[in-house]
Amino acid sequence: MVSVDFRPEVPAPTSDTFRSCGVTLAALGRVEAAQALASSRYGSPRAVHLCNAYTLSLALRNPRFRQVLEAGDLNIADGHYVARVGRRRGHPISDVRGPQLMLDTIEAGLASGMKHYLYGSSPNTVRKLAANLRASYPDINLVGVESPPFGDLTARQSADLQRRIRAAGPDIVWVGLGTPRQDRFCAAYRDRLHTALVPVGAAFDFHAGTKRTAPVWLQRIGLEWAFRLASEPRRLWRRYLVGSSRFVYGTLTDRRREALDRRQVEYDRRVLSATPATGPAAPPGDGSAAAPDRISLQAERRQLTERRQPSH
User: Fold this and answer.
1) Residue 223, Cβ neighbours under 10 Å: how many?
2) pLDDT in tens, 2-27
3) Burial 191-217 (b: 16+ CB within 10 A, else e)
4) What order do you get walking across the sheet with 23-26 strand by strand?
5) Listed residue (5, 4, 2, 8) closest to 60, CA to CA
6) How far apart are CA 60 and CA 250, in angstroms?
7) For 227-259, what is each residue's pLDDT tens digit?
8) Which whole-number Å values give the CA distances from 57 to 160, 217, 247, in the listed order?
9) What is the pTM for the complete model shown?
10) Which sequence spans correspond to the domains of the chain?
């Protein structure tokens, strides 16, 4: 859905960011993340991604999905274990949970009359969600509530959605389509809807009351995943058992991956500097001195993304 070519070279972490599984994340805690989202205004588009361990495990496995996240405007560390990675890398951030971030942002935007739009889940769930939010926040400015059709939108459905969003003028659209579909939607529709798009997934079900949320004490010690797994084992076992293993592997190999990215950048520079000023560049594999480096980089990248990860 996103017409951006994947490039392995990515920006190095700054004092305000850190990397996990090859994805750059903003070093924002709960309060800072809510403030950042509450500053959203219609007419200033941005794609926000809440990156939990499962999201990052998908990015580790799928370079194109990684590029979807890297092309976003704001990637927030979502969940206890991703925040823990940030803390171990020098950022004293508090845990952020998508469902709580949604409520924090709504509360922070009440005084300014921030406009919210709900897009996702089933018709029954999104109606319950809207009713519960209006009951909890009587002053909430909820300008749109809809459940999308199953599957990708047709050209006509896409045009209709754009007209509805344009008429409502929301400052933020909360998207509940499930990972990775919701992240791809936010990337594809960022410049079509002209507003902030924030995927929050299960928050729709939790706040609608259609699914139980883990007790606070389990959330605080990082065991919310165990509660959810026990609640829906057949649906979530792969996400938590396989996905979590990939996340751990990705975290442990981040430094090696970053070193590989730097080598890739240096290799690309050498190839460009050796390219004649006129005429097409010769393939670096035809006896070129750069060919061994290219082969080595490809082999190491395959090893990091395929060979040593848990299989399905």
Assistant:
1) 15
2) 333 333 344 555 569 999 999 999 99
3) eebbbbbbbbbbbbbbbbeeeebbeee
4) 17-20, 23-26, 74-77, 46-51, 196-199, 172-176, 115-120, 141-146
5) 8
6) 7
7) 888 888 888 888 888 888 999 999 899 888 777
8) 34, 26, 5
9) 0.80
10) 17-252, 254-273+284-307
